[in-house]
UniProtKB/TrEMBL annotation:
InterPro entries: Gfo/Idh/MocA-like_OxRdtase_N (IPR000683), GFO_IDH_MocA-like_dom (IPR055170), NAD(P)-bd_dom_sf (IPR036291). Residues 7-127 form the Gfo/Idh/MocA-like oxidoreductase N-terminal domain. GO terms for molecular function: nucleotide binding; oxidoreductase activity. This is Dehydrogenase. The keyword Oxidoreductase applies. It holds the Pfam family GFO_IDH_MocA. Belongs to the Gfo/Idh/MocA family. Residues 135-257 form the GFO/IDH/MocA-like oxidoreductase domain. Keywords: Oxidoreductase.
């Protein structure tokens, strides 16, 4: 492929986030074209392909993996299908963008990384927060030494409420493997070069206490101690009534950076009950520019034959922290990262 050819992308998984990603790839990512959509259920792929002008839709992923008209795949299927899809796509010679988590075991993470390495394809993972302008500027300030040595870090994710999900349909440990995994990556991104050493986690079902007995968890706090001495906190809730809330903070020996705001515009309403701002209710609104940024970076990596800016190894590191947090909840004790091997 020349550096000017559009990268021809097939979406795998036409659900909520896949539909968002496909629309961005089709209409807002320079150098990309959406050529195919695959989803095994009903007419989801056909409807999305028709809406976005993709020429191919299929219920069989083998059709896109075997197509000479597809350069890369964007995997937005459910978490537990990711590793098999990454491996199959890499073996078919396709570049791979995979939503988080890339895997739910370290063995699977290693398989995905090895498959991409041996095929020589780009493998990028969907830690989009790195591409949000505020988080990216925070990292630049840290790289420039402006906050000195990082000492305290915070990252949080609060999904918009009221939470209307069915606890029985939320896979076990989702809060760690699919929600906080963003925060674990953010903590590593904002503490560059440092390795996580020890993890402690507390989790509960504060939003749906009735579901706690069946293992449901919707609220969690995790501490991570890094090898440069920095102490970090990640927290998540499934239900913030005021809107979607994603923030980060790094406090260092010479200053502090914060990133993440929920306001949708700079309009402030002043009325008899006080002051109000409007907040985002959806990740696809709050973090839209970060999604466009990550897909643009993926396309650039493919066209310029550079490594992906968010690698399989980054996914493995965040996963290892998530697995340590799960073990900490199970045991009630701090967990050394070197105990997490599977
Ligand atoms: N980065 C982010 O901000 C972000 C946000 C939301 C979701 N996600 C991640 O994206 C993934 C999908 O989440 P979602 O909310 O869109 O889920 P979803 O359930 O809405 O959609 C999943 C889709 O995948 C299809 N599917 C199932 N098995 C498949 C297979 N083997 N091959 C292809 N398609 C298959 C389903 O039919 C469905 O249409 C999850 O891993 C989730 O953690 C990331």
């Amino acid at each position: 492929m020349s550096s000017t050819d559009p990268v021809r992308i097939a979406l795998i998984g036409a659900g909520r986030i896949g539909a968002n990603h496909a629309e961005l790839v089709a209409r807002h990512v320079v150098g990309a074209s959406l050529v195919a959509v695959s989803d095994p259920i009903g007419d989801a792929a056909a409807r999305l392909a028709a809406a976005l002008g993709a020429s191919t839709s299929t219920t069989d992923v083998a059709d896109v993996l075997g197509s000479d008209d597809v350069d890369a795949v964007l995997i937005a299927a459910p978490a537990r299908s990711h590793t098999e899809l990454v491996v199959a796509a890499a073996q078919a010679g396709k570049h791979v963008f995979c939503e988080k988590p890339m895997a739910v075991t370290l063995a699977d993470a290693d398989r995905a990384i090895a498959a991409a390495d041996s095929a020589g394809v780009v493998l990028q993972v969907g830690f989009n927060r790195r591409f949000a302008p505020g988080f990216s500027a925070a990292r630049a300030a840290i790289d420039a030494g402006r906050i000195g040595t990082p000492q305290l870090l915070r990252s949080l994710t609060r999904d918009p409420g009221p939470w209307g999900g069915d606890p029985a349909r939320v896979p076990q440990w989702t809060i760690f493997l699919e929600t906080l995994i963003h925060d674990f990556d953010t903590l590593c991104f904002l503490n560059p070069g440092a390795r996580p050493l020890r993890v402690t986690a507390v989790a509960d079902a504060l939003i749906r206490p009735d579901a706690k007995a069946s293992g449901h968890l919707d609220t969690a706090v995790v501490t991570v101690v890094f090898d440069n001495g920095a102490i970090a906190t990640a927290e998540a809730s499934f239900s913030a009534l005021y809107g979607y809330d994603v923030r980060g903070e790094v406090f260092g020996s010479a200053g502090m950076v914060t990133a993440g705001r929920g306001d949708t515009t700079d309009m402030v309403f002043y009325g008899s009950n006080g002051i109000e701002i409007d907040t985002s209710r959806r990740d696809t609104d709050l973090l839209r520019s970060s999604y466009i940024g990550e897909f643009t970076a993926f396309v650039d990596a493919i066209r310029s034959q550079k490594p992906a800016p968010v690698t399989g190894q980054d996914a493995r590191t965040a996963l290892a922290i998530a697995l340590a947090a799960i073990r900490s909840v199970e045991t009630g004790a701090a967990v050394d990262m070197n105990e997490v091997t599977a």
